[in-house]
Amino acid sequence: MGSPSHRPTARPRPGSARRLLGLCAAFLILPVGVAAQGGPEAEVAGVLDALHRAASEADFDAYFALYADEFVFLGTDATERWDRAQFMEYARDPFSRGRGWTYTPLERHVTLSADGSTAWFDERLENANLGETRGSGVLVREDGAWKVAQYNLTIPIPNELAGEVVARIREHSSGGP
C-alpha cells in the first residue's frame, strides 16, 4: 500500500491560537451556502465538516464513526483504493501520534436523491501540502445517520497543464527518469 496523498500534518498545538482561529473561521464560513438551505443538505454538510475537523485533530474514533460500514476511499494516486479496514489501518499510526491531515473547505455542493436516502457532494479544499484539491463522494443513511460511503480526493489540473502532467505520469509509470 503506497503512502496516501494526504500526508499527515502536525496536530495544532494548544497554544497556537492563530491557527485554531483560522480553522474555526473556515468551519464557520464554509458551509454557508449549504447551511443556508437547511434540512438534509445542512446535515450532510455538518457530517463533512465534522469529518475534516476530526482528521485535522487526529481523532481516530470520531473520524471513522462518520464512515459507512462499506466505505471506500479513492486517493490522488491511482493505487489508492482502500476499503474501510485498509484506510483505518493506514490512519491508526499517524492518528495515534497526534498527526492528522487538514483540508479546509472552500466551496461545497450537496445533492440529495429523490427519496432522501443518498447524498452526493463535491467540495473544493485547501491543503498545505497539495494546495487546492477536490473532494467528492457519496453519503448514505445508515442507522438513521448520514455516513460517508465513498470519498474521492483529487488534485484539479488546469487544462493548459494537462498534456504536460499526463506525459510526466506516463514517463513515471514506464520507469523513466
Write up what this structure looks like.
It contains six helices and eight strands; from the N terminus they run E-H-H-H-H-E-E-H-E-E-E-E-E-H. The chain is α+β, with helices and mostly antiparallel strands and 177 residues long. The chain has a single domain, classed as Nuclear Transport Factor 2, Chain: A (Roll). It has a six-stranded mixed sheet. A hairpin with a 3-residue loop joins strand 6 and strand 7.
For the structure shown, list the relevant keywords:
six-stranded mixed beta sheet; 6 helices; single chain; alpha+beta; 177 residues; Nuclear Transport Factor 2, Chain: A; globular; disordered N terminus
How do the strands and helices of this protein lay out in sequence?
Blueprint: E1 9-10, H1 17-29, H2 32-35, H3 39-56, H4 60-65, E2 67-74, E3 81-83, H5 84-96, E4 99-100, E5 104-112, E6 118-127, E7 131-142, E8 145-154, H6 159-173
Parallel strand pairs: 2-8
Antiparallel strand pairs: 1-4, 2-3, 5-6, 6-7, 7-8
Mean pLDDT: 84
How many beta-strand runs?
Answer: 8
Uncertain regions: pLDDT < 50 for 5+ in a row?
Answer: 1-36
**Name of the CATH architecture:** Roll
Structural class: alpha+beta
Quick recap of the structure?
This protein is of the alpha+beta class and about 180 residues long. It has six helices and eight strands; from the N terminus they run βααααββαβββββα. The radius of gyration is 17 Å and the shape is globular.
